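#struct-queue
[09:14] JT: dropping the first one here, sequence first, then the C-alpha cells:
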Amino acid sequence: MRPTAAEAERDLVLVGGGHTHALLIRRLGMRPVPGVRVTLVSESAMTPYSGMLPGLVAGHYHFNETHIDLNRLCQRCGVRFVEGRLTGFDPQAHRLQIQGRPDLRYDLVSFDTGSTPNLDLPGAREHAVGVKPVSHFHDEWTRLLNQLEQSSSRPMHWGVVGAGAGGVELVLAMAHRLRDQSGLRVHLIFSSEQVLPGYPKGVVKAAERALKAAGITLHARARVAAVTADGVTLEAGQAIALDRTVLCTPASAPDWPDKAGLDTANGGFIAVNQYLQSTSHPTVFAAGDVAEMVEDPRPKAGVYAVRQAPTLHHNIERWFRQQPLEPLRLQRHFLSLLSLGDQQATGSRNGLACTGRWVWRWKDRIDRRFMDALNEFNPGMAQTDESPAPMHCAGCGSKLGPDLLQDTLADLPQVQKESVLPALGKAEDASLWTPTPGRQIVQSVDGFRAFSDDLYRVGQVSVHHALSDLYAMNATPVSAQVWINLAFGHARLQAGDFRQVMSGVAEALVANDCVLAGGHSTEGLETHLSVTANGEVAANEIWRKTGARPGDWLVLSKPLGTGVILAADMTGDAPAGSMAAAWDSMLRSNREAWQALKQQQPNAVTDVTGFGLLGHLLEMLQDSQLRAELQADALPVLPGALDLLSVGRQSSLVPHLLPYLNHCQIDAGIDPALSHLLLDPQTSGGLLAAVSDIATLPDTFTVIGRLAERSGLPAVRVIRATEP
C-alpha cells in the first residue's frame, strides 16, 4: 500500500520500464518500503517483453499481449507514473533532467533504461533499422510492413545482420510473417562460422533446419563494413544487395552515464557492484542492459534482468534502512528457449537440447504467465500498521512556507502585460488589472482534486480547463490566479511537488498568453488545484450558450471519454493507449479552436466539461424551440472509452446526470454504451458550437449533428450518421 503523503519522507525514482523495474514495482505493491514515495519515469507507458518480440513479429501475438502496461501496473501498486524521456542527470544534486519538464529530485535512483542501437557502422543511421531498443522496434517493423504493402511487385531482399539468439529468432519470425509475399527473399548475415555461436550443437542444428525450411539465405563469415541505401558492404569488399537492412548486433551504451560522471564499463554501461549499486555513486542503482556487473559480468540477456529484481528490491529496502546490502547471486546455467518462426521452438539447459511445437507451447505458457503476473496483478488493499500522522494546523491558513513559494515562483516562465501588475512581482495583497476601455471583464473559476500523480501535467490541464470558459465566451485571456492545496508531506517532497505543479501551470499560461497574477497555497489531506481566469471581450462580440438557429451545424473540438478513462485509471484498469489519448486531448488548449471559431461567427458556444456533452447541449437548447439531431457514428470518441463504458465503468458523477436522458431519444441499433458517453464528464473538454456554415470549417472541429425546429419531439435525438 502506498505510504500516505504525511508518512513519505524520501523519494525513490525508477528510471526506465525494463523487466527488472517492472518486477520491482510488483514487489513494491506487495511490500512497500515504509516512508518512501516511489516514482517511475518511462519514455512510454507500454514497454515490450523482449521474450515475446519474435512472436509479435511473426504474427502469433497482438501488441497488447506482448507489452507491459506500466501506468496500470503503477496505479495498482501505489507507484507514481511519469511519462517522459531522460535527457541527463546530476548525481551530485540528486536531480534528473526529463525532456520538457522540470527536474525531478531523488534520494535514491535506479536505472533500467535498456541499451541503445549500435549504429556506429558507416551508413547505419541513414539506411538501417536497429532492433535495440526493443521498445522502438515494433514501430519500425510496422512501418516496414506498410512500405512493403505499398511497394511494387518487383523482387525484394530484406536482410538481418547478426546471428546470435536475437538475430536468428528475428529472421525466422520475419520469414514466417512474410511467407506469402511472392518475390521477397530474406537474408541472414553474420561474421561467425555458424549461427548461434556458443550454443549447444542440438540447438544450432535445430536453428539451421528451421532457417533452411524457411528459405532464408545465409551469409556466413560475412563481416559488415558499411550499410548503404542498396544493402551492405563487407570488409572483404563484396556487396550484398538489400532493400531493407535490420541490425541485430550487440547494442551500445547510452551516453548520459558517462556525461554524468558515473563509473562505466564495457563501452559505457553503468558499472555496478555485486549489490547492483553504482561503483562510484552509492545513491545510484542500475539493472538490466544499462548496467554492467563488473565483478560478475554476464551477457545482456532478459533472464538475468528478471532475476535481478528480488535483489534490487531487498537492497533498496536495506539502503533506506541503512542496513548492509546483500550480494546478487546468479546461476551459471539456465533454461534457454528460442522461437523458430512457425510456432516451433528449441530449448536447452546444461547442454541438453529439445525441439518441437511442444517446446513452443512450453515457452508460450512461460511467457504468458510472466505477462499475466504484471498486467493482471492487483495487490488489493493490504492493511498496514500505521502510526498516527502528525497534526497539521489549519488555523494558520494552512499556508506553505514562504521560502518554498519564493524560490519556486522566481524560476517560473511568465507573461508580462502593462495592464496587469502581478502579485508575483511585488508583495501586494492582490493583483492590479486595468481593463481595456470599451471591453467587458470576464471571470471564471474552475478546479478539481488532482486526478494523477503527474502534477506537472495536472497543472497544465487545470489551466486549459479553466481558460476554456473564457474561450467559450470569445474572451481573450488576460491573467489568472491559482489556488493550490498540496497534500501533507515532508517539506522536501512538498517542494518538489510544488515546483512540478506550478511549472505546469506557468507553462500553460505562457502558451495561452496569460499572466500569472498571484494566488494562494495551502496544504491538506489531498492535492487540489483551482484556477481563476480573467479575460476581456467587446460587448458586441460576446458568445453565449443560447442563440442557436434552426439549420445550424453542431461542431465539437475535442473527442469524448476522459471521464470514464480517468475513472478506470484510478483503479489501474485504463489501457495505456486510452490514457495516452486522454492526456493528448486534455493537454490541448482550446485556443486554436477559439481562433478558428472567430472566423465562423458562431450563433452559440459552450465548453463540454462536468455535465457531459448532453448536459451542456441541453443548456444550449434551453428556452428555445430547437431540437438537436446527433449523428452517433460521427461523435469523436477517445480510444477504449466505449469499451470501458460497455463493461460498466463510469465516472462517479454520471448517476447524478441520468435525468438528462429524459430529454434524449436514442434510435434502436445504436451501441447502448453511447448513452453513458453522452453523460461522461469531461476534464479539459472541447468547445461545442452551433454554426451556420461548415464549408470552411478547419480540422480542429468535428461535425456531430444539426439543429432543427423541435415540433414536440425530445430536445435531443441520436441517429445513425448521415452525410452532411
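[09:21] JT: and here's the second one, same format:
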Amino acid sequence: MQHREKLHELLLCAGLTVVEDMRPGSLFPPEADWRIARGIAAPDGVVREALDAAWWHRLADADGEFLFAALGHRIGGNDSWWTRVRYAHGGVPELTSAPGFVALSLDGQVLLTEVPGAGGPRAPALDRLPQRLEESAAAAGRETETERAEAWAAVPGRHAWPLLWAKGIGSNPAAPDELLIRLLDVEEGFLHGCDRPAVLDAALSHPDPRVRSRPADTFRPKLTSDQWVQLVRAEPSPDRRVLWAERACIWGTVLPRDLYDDLPAGPSRASAAELPGLPAQHLPGLAADADPRVRAAACARWEDLAAPLRERLLTDTDDAVRTTALLAHHTRLPMPREVFAALPDPRQALDRCRLAPELEAELVRDGDAEVRRALAATPGLGAHGVAVLAQDPQDDIRSAVALRHYLTEEQRAAIRHDFDPTSMSHTLSWVEDLHGDADAMRRLATSSHPLVRRSVARARHLPPDVVARLARDEDRVVRLFLAESCEDAPADLLLEVWRWWDGSFSHPDRPRSHPNFPRAGLLHYVADLNGRRRLALDDPESTPADVARLARDPEAEVRRRAAEDPRLSPADAVLLLNDPEGYVRGTAVRNPRLPASILAGLLHDRDTACAAVTNPAIPVPVLHRILAAAAAAVTVRP
C-alpha cells in the first residue's frame, strides 16, 4: 500500500491522472520492460538523450491513456502491476523526480523508458514493439559457436548480482558435486532439495553446525539411514543429538544400539526416554532419575518396564509422575471409577485409557458431548461403548466410531456417519499398517466409508482387482489418491485424473509423472478446447513445430509447458522471457535452449539472476567463476 501511495503521489506531481492499477493480463509485463530498458534481451531500438513530445503523443491513445511503472515503486507482489494513467496536457510529463520509468501504449506497440546509467540516463524508445521483439529473438536464435564462446568468456563480468547467484547456483542440475561441495562454504540453502550422496556426506562432516544440520532440518530429508547415523554421531550438542535421533526414527532409521549409550545421560534425557528404539537396559536409570520430567517420560515405555519399576512410578512422590504412570498403567488394565475420579483431570483418561465396564457405560451416556467425543476416539473403548456411541445424536461422534479398526464392514455400514467429501483427508494409521495384507485391502476397498477407501488407495502396491475397483470409485479423491500413490494405477485412470488434477505439494506433477501415465496417442490433445493442450507435447510423435505452436497458446499453463520443452527453439525461448505470466518467464529463463548472449545478460538482472544461474546450459567452468564471484561477495557482506 505504501508503494502504491508514493507512486500515485509521483504521478500526480507529473501531471498524470491515475485511472487504475492493473495486472499485465495479456500485455507486455513491466519486468520485461525494465530488462529492455537496461539493454538485456532487448531489440535494437532508438536511443535518445530525451523523450520528446512526439514520442509521448505516439504512446497515448485517443483519451491520452497509457501504462506506467516507476523504478522503486513496485506494487502487486512479485509481478509488478501496470498503473493505467491519463495525460491530458500537451508536451512531456514532468517526470524529473522519477528514478526511472517504463511506459507502454495500451495496444503494446510503443515503449518509452528512462533508466539511470553510468553516463547519465538512458532513454530507449521503441515502436512496433512486438515485431521488433520477434526480429530480435530470431536474430538471437542464430547465435554462432564463436558468439556463444565470447558470451561465456565475459561472465561473470561487472554489474552482477552475486548474492542471488549464491542462492540459485545449488539448484543447477549441471553443477558437479565438486562445485556444490565448495558452495557449502558460501550458501547452504540448496541442501533443502539436494539428494546427491557425496554432497550430503560433505555437508554432514562440515565444521559449521548450521551446514551440518541443514540436510536434516528440511520438510523431506533425503538422508540415507547411514547418513542419519553419521549425523547423530557427529553432533557435539547433547540436545541436538537427541533431536536428530528423534528425526532419524521418524524417517524410519533404526539406530545402532551403541548410539543410545550417552543419550539418556544428557540434559535432553527426557526426550531420549521417549525414543522408540531406546534399549530397555537404559529404562531403570531413567525411571529412577532425579528429574521428575525424566521419570514421567520413562512411562511412555510402560510395557518395557519391569514390575518393580512400575510400582515405584505408581507411588512416586511427584504428582505429575504418578498421574502419568496411572494413565500408562490403564492403557491395558481397566481403570476403576475411584481411580478415574481421583485424577487431577479425569478427562486425561478419556483419550487413552481402558475404563471399567460400569464406568464406561455411564460415560458414553454422559450429557457432555466433549466426554462422548473423546471416548469415541479412545482405542480401548469396549463393544458396549461402541454400540451406544454408534447411535449418538452427534454426527461427528458417530463418524469417529465408524472409523474404528475392529469393526466389520457390515458394522461400519450400519453406522449413520457424516463425512464431508471436500474435507482434507489423512491416511488412517490402522489401514496403512495393513497395506501389505492383500486380503485386508480387498475387504477394506469395499468399505462404505470413503476415508477407509481413500486410505487403501494410498498403498504403494495393491492387488489388480482392488486397483480395478478403486479406479471406478464414486469418490474422486479415492481415484486421485490411487493415481498419486499406487504404482499399479492404470493408464486410463491416470489420464482421467489428470484432466482435473495436475499435482500437489506432497505429490508434485502426479499423475503425469506416474510411470504408467500414457504417452502414445496424446497428440490429438494439441487442439483440445479444455486447456489441456500441453499434454500433446508428451506424445513421442510430437514435433518442434508443436512446441512452437503451444509456445504461443492463449493459456499460460500451456505456454509454460512449452517453455520447459528441450525442443523449444532458441528464438521462442527468448520470446517467452517476455510472457505476461511470471511463472512462464521463470520457466523460460531455465530453458537450456536460450542463447548464451541472452542468458549471460539475464545473470545481470535482479529479477532473473537467481533463476538464470540454475540454467543447465551454463558451462561448468563458467559456474566455477560465478561461484568464485559469489563467494567473494559473501565474504565482504556486512
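[09:30] RK: nice, looked through the second one.
[09:31] RK: DSSP finds 36 helices and seven strands in the chain.
[09:31] JT: good to know. The first helix runs from residue 2 to 13.
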